[in-house]
User: Which sequence fits this backbone?
């Protein structure tokens, strides 16, 4: 089995007269935390949205775990094995934490509509298994005691953890985290780093977009840097930090 989880090349995307992405590609190995960084307007979120089916690319090739996939729709990407969180938290506010994770888990269920309507023994058994696994995931991310709390009542940091638990519930090949540290205080960032590190130790693979460069450089195995929709650097964090193009992009005029 190949150790390559995600192989993407030649991705371009235009919005009217704006060339948002130009020939971007990344290669992520199993068990890596892979960082995607760049100044505001660099194209990070556009690239993320292309990978996860929110935007249709103008060009590009996509392979997940050695198999081609087309990022043409969000639900198809989820079925293929990519789960994502969002920069702006998107939870079902009036559902409990447990119910939010169960929603994510349902993408891997087998019982159809008839089973749900008739509440067949198979459906009930599967629902019980979903609830059990969802509770395990809440425990895993550190908020198991809040299973019966409505999502809107959780602290900001715990809502972020809940999003990650819901993403994990889909049994993804790749977890794509969109600025998970945004809005967190220092303590919450430390806890987030510990959680991401634990996820990696459990041989899961993560693509991380993050403005907190210190967090990225201290956590990621490899990093790609975008600027004005173009890939200006890729490599180990220690290499990327010394790249003159990266230094100019972050510190030079125009940013």
Assistant:
């Amino acid at each position: 089995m190949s150790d390559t989880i995600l192989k993407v090349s030649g991705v371009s995307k235009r919005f009217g007269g704006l060339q948002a992405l130009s020939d971007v590609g990344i290669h992520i190995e199993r068990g890596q935390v892979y960082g995607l960084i760049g100044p505001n307007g660099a194209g990070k979120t556009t690239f993320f949205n292309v990978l996860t089916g929110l935007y249709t690319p103008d060009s590009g090739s996509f392979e997940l775990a050695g198999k081609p996939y087309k990022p043409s729709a969000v639900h198809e990407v989820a079925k293929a094995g990519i789960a994502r969180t969002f920069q702006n938290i998107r939870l079902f506010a009036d559902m409990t934490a447990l119910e939010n994770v169960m929603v994510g888990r349902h993408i891997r269920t087998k019982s159809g509509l008839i089973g749900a309507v008739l509440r067949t023994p198979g459906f009930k058994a599967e629902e019980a298994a979903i609830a059990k696994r969802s509770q395990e995931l809440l425990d895993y991310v550190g908020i198991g005691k809040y299973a019966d709390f409505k999502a809107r009542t959780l602290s900001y940091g715990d809502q972020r953890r809940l999003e990650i638990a819901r993403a994990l519930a889909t049994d993804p090949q790749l977890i794509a985290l969109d600025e998970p540290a945004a809005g967190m205080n220092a303590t919450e960032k430390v806890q987030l780093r510990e959680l991401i590190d634990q996820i990696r130790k459990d041989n899961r693979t993560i693509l991380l977009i993050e403005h907190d460069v210190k967090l990225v450089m201290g956590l990621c195995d490899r990093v790609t840097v975008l600027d004005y929709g173009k890939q200006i650097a890729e490599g180990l964090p220690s290499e990327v930090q010394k790249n003159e193009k990266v230094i100019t992009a972050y510190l030079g005029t125009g940013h």
